[in-house]
Fold this sequence. Notes:
Shape: globular
Number of strands: 6
Number of helices: 8
CATH superfamily: MoaB/Mog-like domain
CATH topology: Molybdenum Cofactor Biosythetic Enzyme, Chain A
Radius of gyration: 16 Å
Strand content: 15-25%
Distance between the termini: 26 Å
CATH architecture: 3-Layer(aba) Sandwich
Structural class: alpha/beta
Amino acid sequence: MKSESMEEHKQKSPLKVKIGVITLSDSRYKDKSPKKSPDISGQIITESIEDHELVHYEIIPDDSQLLLKTVNDLIEDKGAEIIITTGGTGIGKRDITIETLKPLFEKELNGFGEIFRYETYKELGTVAILSRATAGVYKRTIIISMPGSPNAVKLGLKIILPELGHLVKHLKE
């Protein structure tokens, strides 16, 4: 059952938002060879947001200080309203995305991670417990962090794409 007020909110939401994309990957960042493996997850995101304005896309290594700098540059210099990160969300030693970004959140959007894990569980089973996908608000900007696998990115986009304008509308209230 659809909510009238929700539909009204969505109708008043911006159709186009400013989005920054960050891929965190030591291997993609370091690989300078001519036959460098493409950043498939980053490409999936940038192609999927073509109805919006991509303000910046960058591949960085798994480095907390560089991630913080890149996020702040996207907000302050590029005007990003939404930042989507992919990679660095696992439980390995070099996975720093969640530990770096979560403390910044002024408000956490728990629903994104919950829905992401639920949909992962439906598709893949109990491996969903490994997912630390999350989202939150920092400096009036939505930050959405997804795992680095292309399938995880496709799932995350399926969840967030219909709500991007709606999220930004609420940030501006």
